[in-house]
Amino acid sequence: MENALAFAKKIEAFSINPYYQLLTKENVTLIQENGFKVFPWTVNSEEAIQKIKSFDRKRNYFEFSR
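RE: above sequence
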């Protein structure tokens, strides 16, 4: 995660877009605390969506398409 954050800062990224199964509550918090939005891919099941949403302490940084 540290490498991803360092690279995102270097290129002045808006967001970090990880594969959803790599996300944890801790790394979502770390990403958000560093000022990035989180757009996980590809979350296809309702159960997975709810799990990932539970990681989002700001409640406004995830986007899911259907």
